[in-house]
Amino acid sequence: MLRDEQVLENAQRVGATMLDGLNALARKYECIGDVRGTGLYFGVEMVRDRAKKDTDIATALKVVNGLRQRRVLISATGPDASVLKIRPPLVFAAKDADRLLTELDKVLAAL
User: Fold this and answer.
1) How far is CA 79 from the centre of its chain?
2) Is 2 inside a domain boundary?
3) 12 neighbors 94 (Cβ within 8 angstroms)
4) Domain tally for the chain?
5) If you count Cβ atoms within 10 Å of the first and of the last residue's Cβ in the chain, which end, N or C, has fewer?
6) CA torsion angle 70 45 94 66 (round to 10)
7) What are the backbone angles phi and psi of residue 45, rounded to the nearest 5°?
8) How far is CA 108 from CA 1, 9, 10, 29, 40, in A?
9) Could you tell me which PANTHER family the record lists for this protein (predicted)?
């Protein structure tokens, strides 16, 4: 069933789109200190100072809540909950990735 639906291929394809989009947002917003991920599992580290890598719990919480208000659900993780944890289902499509990236851009722009 999973093979027939090409779930792995979808995760790789959409995951690459997501990673590119998240890295583009990191270039645009100084509050993103690091982006990492593979397949459809991503971490976006929120920082107060990119050079010092001082984590920013408050901004991570604002982003999680801002996305929730836009009906996009993610969470925060890490020792101090400053890393956005994005792990959509394996059936996540390109249009879903576009929406998540668009809404994340809007939330970050409003900070």
Assistant:
1) 18
2) no
3) no
4) 1
5) N
6) 0
7) -85, 125
8) 38, 30, 27, 7, 21
9) ALANINE--GLYOXYLATE AMINOTRANSFERASE 2-LIKE (PTHR45688:SF13), PTHR45688
pTM of the model: 0.93
CA angle (50, 104, 86) in 5-degree steps:
85
Let me know if residue 60 belongs to a domain: yes
Tell me if 1 is assigned to some domain: no
Tell me the one-letter amino acid at 56: D
CA dist., res. 12 & res. 100, Å (int): 17
Domain with 18, as residue range(s), is 7-110
